[in-house]
């Protein structure tokens, strides 16, 4: 009897140890996915352009599941997969691109100064786990490649749960304050970014500039209504005087600037009072931002600069380089 008990204990102990490894079963996959650092980093850094919930006609970049499938071709090991993605992110040119159709349709991804560890975590998460698919994806992929199944780890069909996960993702009130505020900021960023980048791609920088002048505030206000929160974009060097940061917000901007100088991934700053919760998160520049926010002598075209001077005679939002903090999201909501 004692021997039998010992055997049972050994089985349970080793079974518990093995359960910590990725099994890709439905229950464990959800748990592991939520715990992986790359999931949040993916949503924070990539979904403004690569959001899986964007409908086909409104896309400005391929969904992340398409990127995963393409980069798994010839990169069967995790190390090779991660390196291949890191190589492109460091030097995103048409010559280095693997997704030729996407480049032809959307153009080359703007260069962004992501910390190497951030790309590693995102790539690791992409390799190991299922990524949400747009509803149209399987049919589109089958037409292009003949088979939507297979292709490495984590390639199971998640299409059936896409709407359910989207609904769960919209239930932000159940999240911790930092994540809730971040969701409010990122969902607003996605709405603004999708429209802005679509304008740039289809009509050019001047059209995007006019869009910002007319639509940026109404769109931000509409997201405030959706989330029942106060959502603002503020800066110590505003383009529009309505976006000027107060003294407290300028202090948080300086904190995020120091983190950016160290190439550190910033976390939301949360301030809880008896009345409400305030969450602050940085707005950083990439190469596309520099068309309107870069150096007037080299990055901003003279026609764009003339339009900026016309629309914003008191403009201060210029002179930036890549990966600099040009402002913050300032989010306020009830507890």
Describe this structure in words.
This protein is α+β, with helices and mostly antiparallel strands. The chain has 15 helices and four strands. It has a four-stranded antiparallel beta sheet, sandwiched between helices. Helix 3 packs across helix 8, helix 6 (78-90) packs across helix 8 and helix 12 (205-227) crosses helix 15. Mean pLDDT is 81; it is low at 1-28 and 148-169.
Assembly state (oligomeric): single chain
Rg from alpha-carbon coordinates: 22 Å
Largest sheet: 4 strands, antiparallel
The parts where pLDDT drops under 50 for at least 5 residues are 1-28, 148-169
How many helical elements?
15
- Main-sheet strand order equals 1-4-3-2
| Share of helix, binned | 40-55%
Quick take:
The protein is an alpha+beta fold.
What topology emerges from the helices and strands here?
Layout: H1 2-18, H2 26-35, H3 37-45, H4 47-50, H5 64-72, H6 78-90, H7 100-106, H8 116-128, H9 137-145, H10 162-169, H11 177-203, H12 205-227, E1 230-234, H13 247-261, E2 269-272, E3 277-284, H14 290-293, H15 302-311, E4 325-333
Antiparallel strand pairs: 1-4, 2-3, 3-4
């Amino acid at each position: 009897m004692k021997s039998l008990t010992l055997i049972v204990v050994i089985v349970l102990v080793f079974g518990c140890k093995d359960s910590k490894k990725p099994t890709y079963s439905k229950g464990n996959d959800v748990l592991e996915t939520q715990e992986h650092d790359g999931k949040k980093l993916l949503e924070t850094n990539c979904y403004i352009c690569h959001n899986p919930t964007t409908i086909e006609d409104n896309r400005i970049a391929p969904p992340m599941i398409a990127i995963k499938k393409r980069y798994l071709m010839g990169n069967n090991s995790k190390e090779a997969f991660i390196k291949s993605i890191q190589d492109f992110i460091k030097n995103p040119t048409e010559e280095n691109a693997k997704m030729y159709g996407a480049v032809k349709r959307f153009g080359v991804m703007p260069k962004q100064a992501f910390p190497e560890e951030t790309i590693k975590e995102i790539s690791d998460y992409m390799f190991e786990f299922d990524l949400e698919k747009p509803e149209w994806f399987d049919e589109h992929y089958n037409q292009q490649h003949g088979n939507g199944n297979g292709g490495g780890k984590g390639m199971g069909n998640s299409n059936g749960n896409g709407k359910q996960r989207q609904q769960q993702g919209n239930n932000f009130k159940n999240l911790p304050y930092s994540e809730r505020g971040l969701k409010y900021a990122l969902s607003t960023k996605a709405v603004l970014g999708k429209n802005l980048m679509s304008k740039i791609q289809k009509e050019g920088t001047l059209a995007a500039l006019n869009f910002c002048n007319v639509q940026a505030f109404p769109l931000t206000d509409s997201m405030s209504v959706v989330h029942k929160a106060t959502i603002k974009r503020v800066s110590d060097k505003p383009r529009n005087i309505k976006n000027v940061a107060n003294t407290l917000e300028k202090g948080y901007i300086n904190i995020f600037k120091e983190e950016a100088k160290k190439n550190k991934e910033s976390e939301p700053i949360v301030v809880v009072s008896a009345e409400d919760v305030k969450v602050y998160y940085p707005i950083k520049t990439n190469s596309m931002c520099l068309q309107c926010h870069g150096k007037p002598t080299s990055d901003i075209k003279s026609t764009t600069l003339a339009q900026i001077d016309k629309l914003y005679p008191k403009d201060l939002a210029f002179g930036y380089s890549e990966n600099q903090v040009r402002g913050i999201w300032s989010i306020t909501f009830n507890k």
